[in-house]
Amino acid sequence: MSFSSYQSLGDTLKEFQVTYTQANFITGVDFTVPDEFREDLQFMIQEGAVDSSEFAICENLIYPVLKLVWKCYYTKFTLWSHRYLNCDANLSGFPEYILARRSPLGKVVFDKPYFILVEAKQDNFDAAWGQCVAEMIAAQRLNNNPQIIVFGITSNGTLWQFGKLNDNQFTLNSMFYSIQELDKLFAAVNDVFHRCELQLNSLVTA
Fold first, then answer.
1. Pairing verdict, β 159-166 and 19-23
2. Nearest to 142 by CA among 119, 125, 165
3. Number of domains in the chain
4. Which CATH number goes with the domain that contains 7?
5. CB distance 85 to 68 below 8 Å
6. DSSP letter string over the chain?
7. How far apart are CA 128 and CA 204, in angstroms?
8. 85: nearest Cα among 33, 127, 122, 131
9. Residues 15, 25: Cα–Cα separation, whole Å
10. Is residue 188 within 8 Å of 52, Cβ to Cβ?
Protein backbone atom coordinates (compact mmCIF):
# COMPACT_ATOMS: atom_id res chain seq x y z
CA MET A 1 0.00 0.00 0.00
CA SER A 2 1.17 3.49 -0.76
CA PHE A 3 1.13 6.24 1.86
CA SER A 4 -1.81 7.84 0.07
CA SER A 5 -3.91 4.76 0.86
CA TYR A 6 -4.00 5.76 4.53
CA GLN A 7 -6.86 8.24 4.73
CA SER A 8 -7.61 8.37 8.47
CA LEU A 9 -5.37 8.95 11.47
CA GLY A 10 -7.34 6.49 13.58
CA ASP A 11 -7.07 3.76 10.94
CA THR A 12 -3.31 4.25 10.59
CA LEU A 13 -2.78 4.14 14.35
CA LYS A 14 -4.87 0.96 14.60
CA GLU A 15 -3.12 -0.67 11.64
CA PHE A 16 0.32 -0.22 13.20
CA GLN A 17 -0.70 -0.33 16.87
CA VAL A 18 0.51 3.17 17.66
CA THR A 19 -0.82 4.98 20.74
CA TYR A 20 -2.26 8.50 20.39
CA THR A 21 -1.65 11.34 22.82
CA GLN A 22 -2.04 15.10 22.64
CA ALA A 23 0.18 17.72 24.29
CA ASN A 24 1.89 21.03 23.62
CA PHE A 25 5.46 19.89 23.07
CA ILE A 26 6.32 22.79 20.75
CA THR A 27 7.79 25.63 22.81
CA GLY A 28 9.12 27.72 19.93
CA VAL A 29 12.62 28.79 18.96
CA ASP A 30 12.75 32.42 17.82
CA PHE A 31 13.39 32.99 14.12
CA THR A 32 13.86 36.33 12.37
CA VAL A 33 11.59 36.50 9.33
CA PRO A 34 12.99 38.89 6.68
CA ASP A 35 10.73 41.73 5.58
CA GLU A 36 11.18 40.67 1.95
CA PHE A 37 9.69 37.28 2.77
CA ARG A 38 6.70 38.85 4.52
CA GLU A 39 6.07 41.16 1.56
CA ASP A 40 6.38 38.39 -1.01
CA LEU A 41 4.09 36.08 0.94
CA GLN A 42 1.50 38.81 1.36
CA PHE A 43 1.62 39.49 -2.37
CA MET A 44 1.16 35.81 -3.20
CA ILE A 45 -1.77 35.43 -0.80
CA GLN A 46 -3.49 38.52 -2.23
CA GLU A 47 -2.78 37.98 -5.91
CA GLY A 48 -1.91 34.32 -6.46
CA ALA A 49 -3.98 31.13 -6.56
CA VAL A 50 -1.91 29.79 -3.70
CA ASP A 51 -4.28 27.06 -2.50
CA SER A 52 -5.97 25.91 -5.70
CA SER A 53 -4.44 22.43 -5.36
CA GLU A 54 -2.13 20.48 -3.07
CA PHE A 55 0.73 21.19 -5.46
CA ALA A 56 0.00 24.92 -5.27
CA ILE A 57 -0.10 24.78 -1.47
CA CYS A 58 3.27 23.03 -1.41
CA GLU A 59 4.97 25.40 -3.83
CA ASN A 60 3.50 28.69 -2.63
CA LEU A 61 2.96 28.29 1.10
CA ILE A 62 4.76 25.30 2.59
CA TYR A 63 8.09 25.04 0.78
CA PRO A 64 9.02 28.75 1.14
CA VAL A 65 8.65 28.48 4.93
CA LEU A 66 10.56 25.20 5.18
CA LYS A 67 13.30 26.45 2.88
CA LEU A 68 13.90 29.63 4.83
CA VAL A 69 14.38 27.69 8.08
CA TRP A 70 16.36 24.89 6.41
CA LYS A 71 18.93 27.42 5.14
CA CYS A 72 20.08 27.79 8.77
CA TYR A 73 20.69 24.03 9.00
CA TYR A 74 21.79 23.08 5.47
CA THR A 75 25.26 21.94 6.52
CA LYS A 76 23.66 19.10 8.51
CA PHE A 77 20.42 18.34 6.68
CA THR A 78 19.04 18.06 3.17
CA LEU A 79 15.44 19.07 2.48
CA TRP A 80 14.06 16.65 -0.10
CA SER A 81 11.00 17.35 -2.22
CA HIS A 82 8.73 14.48 -3.33
CA ARG A 83 11.44 11.85 -2.92
CA TYR A 84 10.41 8.18 -2.98
CA LEU A 85 10.52 6.54 0.45
CA ASN A 86 10.30 2.75 0.44
CA CYS A 87 10.07 0.73 3.64
CA ASP A 88 8.05 -2.29 2.54
CA ALA A 89 4.98 -3.27 0.53
CA ASN A 90 2.68 -1.49 2.99
CA LEU A 91 4.74 1.64 3.50
CA SER A 92 6.00 3.37 0.39
CA GLY A 93 5.37 6.50 -1.60
CA PHE A 94 6.26 10.13 -2.05
CA PRO A 95 6.02 12.41 1.00
CA GLU A 96 5.76 16.08 0.10
CA TYR A 97 9.00 16.89 1.92
CA ILE A 98 11.56 14.98 3.95
CA LEU A 99 14.26 16.44 6.17
CA ALA A 100 17.13 13.97 6.29
CA ARG A 101 20.73 13.97 7.39
CA ARG A 102 22.99 15.51 4.78
CA SER A 103 24.98 12.58 3.42
CA PRO A 104 28.77 12.69 3.76
CA LEU A 105 28.80 11.45 0.15
CA GLY A 106 27.23 14.68 -1.11
CA LYS A 107 23.94 16.53 -1.45
CA VAL A 108 22.60 14.25 -4.21
CA VAL A 109 22.68 11.14 -1.99
CA PHE A 110 19.37 10.37 -0.23
CA ASP A 111 20.57 9.20 3.15
CA LYS A 112 19.08 8.40 6.53
CA PRO A 113 18.28 9.07 9.27
CA TYR A 114 15.04 10.78 8.32
CA PHE A 115 13.77 13.32 10.82
CA ILE A 116 10.76 15.25 9.46
CA LEU A 117 7.96 14.20 7.12
CA VAL A 118 5.65 16.85 5.67
CA GLU A 119 2.22 16.29 4.16
CA ALA A 120 -0.16 18.77 2.51
CA LYS A 121 -3.94 18.44 2.19
CA GLN A 122 -6.38 21.07 1.08
CA ASP A 123 -8.78 20.80 4.01
CA ASN A 124 -8.69 17.32 5.53
CA PHE A 125 -6.31 17.08 8.45
CA ASP A 126 -7.53 13.61 9.43
CA ALA A 127 -6.47 12.27 6.03
CA ALA A 128 -3.29 14.32 6.15
CA TRP A 129 -2.28 12.78 9.47
CA GLY A 130 -3.35 9.31 8.40
CA GLN A 131 -0.88 9.60 5.53
CA CYS A 132 1.81 11.52 7.42
CA VAL A 133 1.91 9.07 10.33
CA ALA A 134 2.32 6.19 7.87
CA GLU A 135 5.28 8.10 6.42
CA MET A 136 6.67 8.71 9.91
CA ILE A 137 6.41 5.00 10.72
CA ALA A 138 8.26 4.15 7.51
CA ALA A 139 11.00 6.64 8.37
CA GLN A 140 11.24 5.27 11.90
CA ARG A 141 11.65 1.71 10.64
CA LEU A 142 14.20 2.71 8.02
CA ASN A 143 16.18 4.67 10.60
CA ASN A 144 16.41 1.46 12.63
CA ASN A 145 17.21 3.48 15.74
CA PRO A 146 14.58 3.60 18.51
CA GLN A 147 16.23 6.66 20.06
CA ILE A 148 15.35 8.90 17.10
CA ILE A 149 12.11 10.86 17.42
CA VAL A 150 10.51 11.41 14.02
CA PHE A 151 8.50 14.59 13.50
CA GLY A 152 5.56 15.26 11.22
CA ILE A 153 4.05 18.45 9.82
CA THR A 154 0.70 18.68 8.07
CA SER A 155 -0.71 21.82 6.51
CA ASN A 156 -3.43 23.13 4.25
CA GLY A 157 -1.23 26.15 3.62
CA THR A 158 -2.98 28.35 6.15
CA LEU A 159 -3.04 26.13 9.24
CA TRP A 160 -0.05 24.06 10.31
CA GLN A 161 -0.09 21.11 12.71
CA PHE A 162 2.86 19.33 14.30
CA GLY A 163 3.31 15.81 15.64
CA LYS A 164 6.03 13.47 16.78
CA LEU A 165 6.52 9.71 16.82
CA ASN A 166 8.51 8.34 19.74
CA ASP A 167 8.74 4.55 19.64
CA ASN A 168 5.08 3.45 19.31
CA GLN A 169 3.53 6.67 20.64
CA PHE A 170 2.31 9.47 18.41
CA THR A 171 1.80 12.88 20.00
CA LEU A 172 -0.16 15.61 18.25
CA ASN A 173 0.76 19.11 19.34
CA SER A 174 -2.41 20.60 20.80
CA MET A 175 -1.77 24.09 19.45
CA PHE A 176 -2.15 24.77 15.75
CA TYR A 177 -0.27 27.52 13.96
CA SER A 178 -1.33 29.92 11.23
CA ILE A 179 0.52 31.48 8.34
CA GLN A 180 -1.28 34.68 9.34
CA GLU A 181 0.93 34.74 12.46
CA LEU A 182 4.29 34.29 10.80
CA ASP A 183 6.52 34.81 13.82
CA LYS A 184 4.77 32.09 15.83
CA LEU A 185 4.72 29.74 12.83
CA PHE A 186 8.42 30.18 12.11
CA ALA A 187 9.26 29.73 15.78
CA ALA A 188 7.38 26.40 15.71
CA VAL A 189 9.07 25.18 12.51
CA ASN A 190 12.46 26.29 13.83
CA ASP A 191 11.74 24.46 17.09
CA VAL A 192 11.32 21.17 15.21
CA PHE A 193 14.44 21.73 13.10
CA HIS A 194 16.39 22.54 16.25
CA ARG A 195 15.21 19.34 17.94
CA CYS A 196 16.37 17.38 14.89
CA GLU A 197 19.76 19.08 15.06
CA LEU A 198 20.15 18.12 18.73
CA GLN A 199 19.27 14.52 17.89
CA LEU A 200 21.77 14.43 15.03
CA ASN A 201 24.49 15.89 17.23
CA SER A 202 23.85 13.22 19.87
CA LEU A 203 24.11 10.50 17.22
CA VAL A 204 27.44 11.89 15.99
CA THR A 205 28.93 12.08 19.50
CA ALA A 206 27.55 8.73 20.68
1. unpaired
2. 165
3. 1
4. 3.90.1570
5. no
6. -BGGG---HHHHHHHHT-EEEEE-----------HHHHHHHHHHHHHS-TTSSHHHHIIIIIHHHHHHHHTTTTTTEEEEES--EEEETTEEE--SEEEEEPPTT-TTS--SPEEEEEEE-SS-HHHHHHHHHHHHHHHHHHHT-TTPPEEEEEE-SSEEEEEEEETTEEEEESS-EETTSHHHHHHHHHHHHHHHHHHHHHHHH-
7. 32
8. 131
9. 25
10. no
Sequential pLDDT tens for the chain (206 residues): 799 999 999 999 999 999 999 999 999 999 999 999 999 999 999 999 999 999 999 999 999 999 999 999 999 999 999 999 999 989 999 999 999 999 999 999 999 999 999 999 988 999 999 999 999 999 999 999 989 999 999 999 999 999 999 999 999 999 999 999 999 999 999 999 999 999 999 987 65
Whole-angstrom distance, CA of residue 59 vs CA of residue 202: 33
**Could you tell me if 191 and 27 are in contact, meaning their C-beta atoms sit under 8 angstroms apart?**
yes
> Which residues contact residue 143 at a Cβ distance below 8 angstroms, ignoring those fewer than 6 apart?
112, 113, 114, 150
Q: Which residues contact 46 (CB under 8 A, 6 or more apart)?
A: none
First to last CA, the chain: 36
* Domain coverage including residue 139: 3-205
